[in-house]
């Protein structure tokens, strides 16, 4: 049985390590990004051998920051990246803002609406990989509608051949394993088909599993769960 920590315990572990001066937030984020790329290629060695095209959804918090680190690392390995930001990049927290700045030194960022226009075209999946770095342990309310539309399209494999969720599939509560339902969503729709959360083939989390990975809608949405150490 994997070690399990709640989101509150995870934040306390991170903050204690950062406060002790043993490690910085940006260093933890770099380790998380590197761990995610390592897990990706361990799971799908064919992707390591043949770089392709990936879409990265980057959210307004440090989960999005992980996405910018991963994008930079994949680009260095010959991948072609389309980055789509959720929210206002000017309001990113410091660690994520630093990762964003490092990405912007080598690549562009599109608005999420660009991707919603792509999913309207009935075309074969454009990407080898969709990387969900929208929301992690800081999710506090149902996903915004454009993101739900993208996950609904991806539940029909309209965007990418494979999906990897960073830390936790966006839309899934990391403690309870519940999918946060917007007030306007019919209660009888299964979370995956309504796009209320990301359905991943692989979820890479850091330091330890969270309860939400293993209960409720978690197992069905996470796909294969890989835990990567970030040296905490
Ligand atoms: N601390 C570190 O250096 C590391 C963190 N890791 C990654 O960080 C996330 C946790 O980051 P945090 O910023 O706390 O939370 P999120 O990125 O999940 O998002 C919070 C952000 O989003 C807003 N928000 C919440 N729900 C919604 C919603 N439904 N719609 C719109 N906006 C929403 C909220 O207000 C915040 O602004 C963790 O999961 C890791 O991925 C690194 O992995 C390790 C280093
Ligand atoms: K995520």
From TrEMBL:
Q: Tell me which residues bind (6S)-NADPHX.
A: 62-66, 136-142, 167
EC class of this enzyme?
Answer: isomerase
> Which cofactors does this gene product need?
K(+)
Q: Where would I find the YjeF N-terminal domain in this sequence?
A: 10-232
User: Per its UniProt entry, which superkingdom is the organism in?
Assistant: Bacteria
- Protein EC: 5.1.99.6
Pfam families on file = YjeF_N (PF03853)
Free-text remark on how the cofactor is bound: Binds 1 potassium ion per subunit.
Any one GO molecular-function label of the UniProt entry: kinase activity
InterPro entries named among the record's database cross-references: YjeF_N_dom, YjeF_N_dom_sf
- Which keywords belong to this entry? Isomerase, Kinase, Metal-binding, NAD, NADP, Nucleotide-binding, Potassium, Transferase
The UniProt annotation places K(+) binding at 63, 132, 170
Reactions catalysed according to its record: (6R)-NADPHX = (6S)-NADPHX; (6R)-NADHX = (6S)-NADHX
Q: Which family does it belong to?
A: Belongs to the NnrE/AIBP family.
Stated role: Catalyzes the epimerization of the S- and R-forms of NAD(P)HX, a damaged form of NAD(P)H that is a result of enzymatic or heat-dependent hydration. This is a prerequisite for the S-specific NAD(P)H-hydrate dehydratase to allow the repair of both epimers of NAD(P)HX.
Stated name of the protein: NAD(P)H-hydrate epimerase
> What lineage does the source organism belong to?
Bacteria, Pseudomonadati, Pseudomonadota, Alphaproteobacteria, Rhodobacterales
């Amino acid at each position: 049985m994997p070690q399990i920590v709640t989101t509150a315990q995870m934040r306390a572990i991170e903050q204690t390590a950062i406060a002790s001066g043993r490690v910085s937030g940006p260093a933890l984020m770099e380790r998380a990004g590197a761990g995610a790329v390592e897990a990706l290629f361990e799971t799908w060695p064919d992707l390591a051998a043949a770089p392709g095209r990936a879409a990265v959804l980057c959210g307004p918090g440090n989960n999005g920051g992980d996405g910018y680190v991963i994008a930079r690392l994949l680009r260095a390995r010959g991948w072609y990246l389309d980055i789509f930001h959720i929210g206002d990049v000017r309001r990113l927290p410091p660690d994520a803002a630093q990762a964003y700045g490092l990405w912007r030194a080598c690549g562009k960022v599109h608005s999420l609406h660009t991707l919603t226009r792509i999913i309207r075209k009935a075309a074969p999946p454009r990407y080898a990989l969709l990387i969900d770095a929208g929301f992690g342990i800081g999710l506090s309310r149902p996903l915004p509608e454009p993101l739900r539309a993208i996950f609904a399209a991806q539940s029909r494999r309209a965007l990418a051949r494979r999906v990897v969720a960073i830390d936790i599939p966006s839309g899934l509560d990391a403690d309870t394993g519940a999918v946060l339902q917007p007030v306007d969503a019919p209660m009888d729709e299964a979370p995956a088909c309504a796009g209320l959360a990301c359905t991943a083939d692989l979820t890479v989390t850091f330091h330890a599993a969270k309860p939400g990975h293993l209960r409720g809608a978690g197992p069905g949405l996470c796909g294969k769960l890989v835990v990567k150490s970030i040296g905490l």
